[in-house]
Amino acid sequence: MEIPVIQLPAGAVRGATDGVIDRFVGIPYAAPPVGERRFAAPQPVEPWSGERDATLPGSNAPQRVRAFPGLDVYPLVGTGWVEGDDYLTLNVLRLTGSAGPLPVMVFIHGGGFVVGSKDAAVQDGASFARDGIVYVAINYRMGIDGFLPIPDVPTNLGLRDQIAALTWVRDNIAAFGGDPSNVTVFGESAGGMSTANLIASPLAKGLFRRAIVESGHGGMTRDIPVARRLVDKLAGLLGVSADKAGFASVPPSQATLDAVEKISQPTARIDLRDEEGREPVFGISRFVPVHGDDVLPVKPLDALKAGAGAEIDLLIGTNAEEMNLYLVPTGVRAKVGRILAWLALRKSIPRAWAILKAYGMGGDAKPGMVLNAAMNDLVFRWPARRFAEEHQGKTHLYEFDWRSPMFGGELGAAHGMELPFVFDCLPVATGPEGLCGTNPPQDLATRIHGLWVQFAKTGALPWPEFDRDTRQVYRLEAGEASHEPVMPAAAFLP
């Protein structure tokens, strides 16, 4: 079996093949972010001589992955930090012997901008390569190094890394048989947020033709002055000055991960609400992109209103019960009462009690169920619809509605549930603690995966486009589109 070798401008890469799929993993798209480069915009790849071994995944961004009660989340986010300097890398998979140019799909992993890896099992990508796609998955800087607006440091370094990776794809993917004029960027959760932000960014213009935003939107960005409160708080925890020199004096380590973990606790004393009293991330992550720089000059929704991304075909959607992932395994949904539900919500948004009443508080529903339903819409579902409304290009909207049987059927169509179906890799999320339980429907995975592949190839989808009047949303399990009424959350969000 012939070993695949590709000659790139920086040097040759040697991959591996099983005779069906060629794999090239751990290819650098930027120089290692260490030393003076740690808090700098991504720098060009350092050339190498000979053939670089592209058969080992390599390192990833500093992170700490914690176990989830009763649920195996490692296939979704990876097993944690693989230490090493050279982690601004990507994987490329292609069908052995296929003739290009082929459509390209670039996946941006999720994980709250603090965990995740291109090498997590669920996003292996072989299914896309099998179906005639050149598949790319990327790592990027996260947490302190990627999404903390430290004074004298370029903002949004994690997004800048993603843009550098897409620039690498534009310049190099033809060598793997990919078509640089037919690139689809897609991502889930923080990766979906990233994809939405890239649509709105002038620095990413022209780097991709289509985008798929899964359980994400453009509403989770902060004003830089607000995000600087996080800088000050973390500097205090680490005992350093709140500037580049201070943070550079503390290398990525278990100590910095301790600080990230401490500041991420719901009990952490930090106010990240904006001038309107909203915390757009609802406490799910402290680390998110900022607007007001050259990457995101304005809020993404405002950018869309001005025509940003109008040339991009967009598929965007959410899961029907996103917040179940956070509130069911932890037992919060079952235990929370009215007062705690109100206190939890008012930390992030004005008129918390009015919101809860709009979702049924005071009626027969349990307070935890009301909080869950409200946050489903506030955090994920309604902001995704708003992004779809403001996007001036071709837009389709989906809802993933298959319900997992885990936790006695209470997990349902939770956050992340669509990923094993999109990647047609149900076995990695199946089992006693698997996200999808013990017997998820393969026919649904085949159909959903096929929709993603078709969209990447041609932009075609078998349901009407979304607009703010007809509001056509395609339910993936049901296999049909219908009008979706405006949600109660609309009265409380921009």
TrEMBL record:
Keywords: Hydrolase. Coiled coil: none annotated. InterPro entries: AB_hydrolase_fold, CarbesteraseB, Carboxylesterase_B_AS, Lipase_GDXG_HIS_AS, Type-B_Carboxylest/Lipase. Its EC number is 3.1.1.-. Residues 4-477 form the Carboxylesterase type B domain. Pfam families: COesterase. GO terms for molecular function: hydrolase activity. Belongs to the type-B carboxylesterase/lipase family. This is Carboxylic ester hydrolase.
